[in-house]
Amino acid sequence: MARIIVGEDDFDIGAEISALTAGRTDIGGIGCFIGTVRDTAPGAPEVAALTLEHYPAMTERALARIVTQAEERWPLLGCTVIHRVGRMLPGENIVLVIAASAHRQAALDATAFL
Question: What's the burial of 76, exposed, middle or buried (CB within 10 Å: 0-12/13-18/19+)?
Fold first, then answer.
């Protein structure tokens, strides 16, 4: 079962992993990616803040489509995709992807894809 969230609120990585794995004994591998706001990029001025805008229905449909593709390619037992929007400062979280499977390689490959 996939969980997709697009919103302005920050997320607690540990709580999200716990929510995905609570009561599960069939999960053998968990892949995780955390994206954060950086303050510099090569050849660019320092970043004071980042503001991301989106079209909610389109964004959620696109993420759901990507999650469906991952579920078709790998034997996932669950996944979480969180993407923040709005104003964020350097060091803050932007993206969280967690993929769970019986085996680590499937979890890691699905995480990279997502």
Answer: buried
